[in-house]
Amino acid sequence: MKSADVIVIGGGVVGTAIAYGLVSRAAKVIVLDGGDGDLRASRVNFGLVWVQTKGLGFPPYQAWSRRSADLWPALEADLADRTGISPQLEQKGGVVYCLDDHEMEERRTTLLRMHNQMEAGTYEARMIDRRELEGLMPGVPFGPEVVGASFSPHDGACDPLSLLRALHAGIAAKGGSIRPGETVQELKRDGTGFVIVTAKGTYHAARIVIAAGHGSVALAKQVGIHAPLVPERGQILVTERLAPMSLLAASGVRQTRDGTILIGVTNDSVGFNIDASAGAAARLAHRATRILPALRMARLVRTWAGLRVLTPDKAPLYAQSDTHPGAFCVNCHSGVTLAAVHSQDIAEAVLKGALPESVAPFHPRRFKEAGHVPEAA
Amino acid sequence: MFQRLPDTATAADFTVEVDGTTCAARAGDTVAAVLLMAGDGPMRRSVVSGAPRAAYCMMGVCFECLVEVDGLPSQQGCLVQVRPGMRIKRQNGRPEIAP
Amino acid sequence: MTESFDLAVVGAGPAGLAAAIRSSALGLKTVVVDEQPAPGGQIYRAVEATSRSPRAAALGPDYLRGRELVERFRASGAHYQPSTQVWQIEPSWSLFASTAASTHVVSARHLLLAVGATERPVPFSGWTLPGVMTVGAAQIMLKTSFMVPKPPFWIAGQGPLVLLYATQLLDAGIRPDGLLLTTPKGAIGRALGHVGGALSGWRYLRKGLAMMRRLKRSGVPILSDVEGIEAIGGERLERVSYRRAGVTQNVAASTLLVHEGVVPSTHMSLALGAAHDWDDATLCMKPRLDDWGKASLPGLSIAGDCGGIGGAEAAAVQGEIAAIGAAQALDKLDDAAAQRDALPLRKALAAHLAIRPFLDAIYRPRAAIRTPDDNVIVCRCEERTAKDVRDAVASGCIGPAQVKSFTRAGMGPCQGRQCALTLTELIASARGVSPAEAGYLRIRPPLKPVTIGELAALDEASAKEPA
Lengths: 377, 99, 467
What we know:
By secondary structure, chain A is α/β, with parallel strands linked by helices. Chain A is built from eight helices and 18 strands. In chain A, a hairpin with a 4-residue loop joins strand 14 and strand 15.
């Protein structure tokens, strides 16, 4: 039987960010990861470090996302330094394109609501017109329908696969252990903590963190945590590598450092289906060519779909068990944005044995409270 | 790299343009075949490292013969039939789509 | 606009053509969709145009026989969409097909994949240099354009295609500078277990031996039991290095043609989610099929080399059997009639396939090709080496999906066509498990790289269609 201070169940970007924070605080950590064919939302992601659209009607989520974005440069530097693998963070600001006056108006209204719900001066997104957009991205041939955008200086993007690789390497470099192909079969409490059984071994730790994406639902139940997660399919298109254009991060179209253009993302409630559909690809392509008509010539190399790990209000879920002290559950669909706070605040909290007040609003009890169904911006 | 066997013409001979140079072609040839006949050097430079590359499979499964044809980038040359006056350009690295 | 059919056949090689002829005769409204501009697939490529040339005889009687099949197809009444690439298929069935940069949808009740074979990837040091090509590629050049390599050129590898192509060159008056045969000494011993099949396939054997004798008499240098092939050069191939009986030599070459057999083209069938198994005898993935060619998904059949390598004549017979099976599945033929019609075909098929186990055993590629040395590029598109893959496994990636995420191997335009087999074998070898356990790359659409503009136009078109 192998022992650790903390066992993290789930080797995706949520689990490994927490594990990295734990090993950085000298904890002995084992990460148990599932099979090669598991859903793995961390592999199907757009890579945004994104603040401006988070938490409309749920101010703590906006504040939490902003805090993580502010901490991200330190995470980038730390990982690049320790592992030689850079997550390729670019945080020069991000835009949400508007393709007609109606979209501009809607976005403007949303921004106003966000400003009003947050402490004065803490929400820094603003509307920009076409001229200012062109000034921010010189030489980019925007389509005639692009009338403007909302811009936030705190938004950006990274390469999610490099982030995951860096976190894995960082955990290993500090003596942590990541064990692949070890789906949890049994999880039970013993006197001093928890015993976990997989097909390959038995593990013991005083604390466990359940960060297993959709797999968390069943596991959380075993420790008395209700995690009402729903799958929402998101499809992304990737083009061949193209010469660099000075595109800022955006939620619909962005260019990676390798030169590929990512186009996304759909939102389909289709259960656990991860088929990429031609219809969705066509819809995504259509909007992308309205933003950037030059994309018409670019070749689509691959498209894939993944399942967002969503709560009913789309904001994260942080819980610690009342019935099984030492068991934590962490789920969100924005694991890239929140990687920084996960490696700091959450890792710290797991070691202390108590989640901080700042994440109290994210407890799943909020789903049982009547009338509380906040939206996403 | 390749040459045409004599006395094999069953269709019209004509010319196409490769990087501005006039080259021989025949109805039924693919763009990749014409490039292999036109010269010995690389057909393109890799989008990852700039390494020299040329056609490998001639049947559309290796994606090495990517060329610009009549202004359209990244065409698989082995799947495009030549036409008289076609303008073919070799691609060096990542294609530009923005002017 | 979507046109509907009873049977959609993807691929106009011998399996697809024979299937369409039979299905049309059975009253199924049939369409054949193919990416080439003329029928014939790869084996009978350009046969209509080429057979008119005075030089056609150089390509041999087997090739020219394809002309008759193509003529019967043209007369069959089946619909035909050439120069058309299928880039996605949705159940059951909508084929998204691209012709002249515009996508249309083909709808069918039953789908037959007859997409043939591709060359096994042959990774070795320098294989990405301009001037290194497959024997199949050179044969396509010969068939469609009557082009041959300029000297000095060498051929390296093993298998029936090597002998066939070399013989076709001799018939065209061209001699390669040398032939490097990579069949290891003692291969015949390995194949002896299958000699029964070889004897009943004696016609194939006789053809192969005759070709070998001609090559030996031609004076072309033939070296056997060759390994360690490397391509050397800067901007292009300049020299070929090889090892024989422990001695390394190198020769000048501007073209090197390589071949280590063909494997089923499984991209489409994998993308559909049909069940496949790793076949250790042929070291590749094969779809799971019943004796009607029906795959594990309803309404899907597979025929010809893409279901398992058997050659052109076997492919044509399998196409016919699959057409009968499809007709029966669509209730155009009752079970008794289907069995009766298929009986003589099954006998013919068994005869054509008898030689295969023997050939598979003799021509089994060496381990160095399947699990190359560290410095060899295995993913050509993304330039990842065998070492990158081994390192990914060492850092915890247990299968191709994770190796792909961590190394980008398999993410380029070819979408794993040139690297998936090597990835599976490298992962299996590094982990000490079977290739079946290591798993295979997950194949996703688009099956061919359509442009964003073509996709966008599809959205506009479907927005205009009445609900």
